[in-house]
């Protein structure tokens, strides 16, 4: 007797490309005289080539410490990674030697800091600083390196690049200096750039220009970009995904449009409500009450409970897991660490 054909098994889904960067269950603490600051408490995030992940949160939430751990520039001691993995192009950076990490920093990973003036060398002309990258990492002659430096300055749209290459960092405006930082970070065409509050020190118009430039270059080079900011208003147009951090944890992670449309965490809701909007001119801005906790004394249960307008008893004792958020019409990856994300989502 012929056996009935079993229904065709579905073709295996093509394996998703391995992310460029995959941070898993990262924990970082600082042992200080006042006690142990748990700055990062189990952060998971990943970034693919061509993707922009914005990491958002008030000051002191562990955004920069996470970035420093990825770059291998954590101040240690007092800082220490106590748990987790940082997979970059499939290799766990935490298992590499200092020498190997330096190589990764040269060509694979680069960082842009908030304060260009202190990140750049004050006694070297910007042309020499940019050129140095090509001399050291690419073995170019000084003359060729200088030509490449001028090209890069052009590319980040510094007017009269050839003439200005001989000038020193303090002779540039804040916005132009930040462009030089971007040029430095891009020089070796890294696979991933981490920009830590790259526009915080700039005025609003210049902020937008620098952000546009970053987005444009990222697109051209198909890099991954992690954009750290405390300002949700800045990232709306450039981010693909947003991870919101609070007290060393990710409390919400979502595609940018979904997050704006309907936040699934009361903290995100508060951050969104405090963005100045042109159409709300004259109205008082909402501010989340209170301050973020000291990471020396994170509240029990949900760390946000002392400030949360939706908090209930369970919030004071049970840590909410970073649960999968699903709803009709959305099949992507989205998460919230709130016991009541469904209610929050409904608004
Ligand atoms: N060098 C350090 N020494 C001691 N504690 C630190 C140090 N750097 C960071 N921390 C701790 O980590 C917390 C998070 O810092 P950070 O990641 O810089 O916050 P942000 O989200 O503003 O970037 C700080 O509030 C502090 O408790
Ligand atoms: S778990 Fe409770 S306290 Fe925390 S965000 Fe949700 S409702 Fe607020
Ligand atoms: Mg910071």
Automatic annotation (TrEMBL):
GO CC field: plasma membrane
Keyword Flavoprotein: no
Pfam families from the UniProt entry: ABC_tran (PF00005), oligo_HPY (PF08352)
Recorded GO MF terms: ATP binding; ATP hydrolysis activity
Signal peptide region: none
Keywords: ATP-binding, Cell membrane, Membrane, Nucleotide-binding, Transport
Coiled coil spans: none
Domain of life per record: Bacteria
Domain ABC transporter: 23-272
Membrane topology summary: Peripheral membrane protein
Compartment annotation: Cell membrane
CDD domains in the record: ABC_NikE_OppD_transporters
InterPro entries found in the cross-reference section: AAA+_ATPase (IPR003593), ABC_Ni/Peptide_Import (IPR050388), ABC_transporter-like_ATP-bd (IPR003439), ABC_transporter-like_CS (IPR017871), Oligopep_ABC_C (IPR013563), P-loop_NTPase (IPR027417)
GO biological process: one example: peptide transport
Family of this protein: Belongs to the ABC transporter superfamily.
Protein's name in the database: ABC transporter ATP-binding protein
Protein source organism: Streptomyces longispororuber
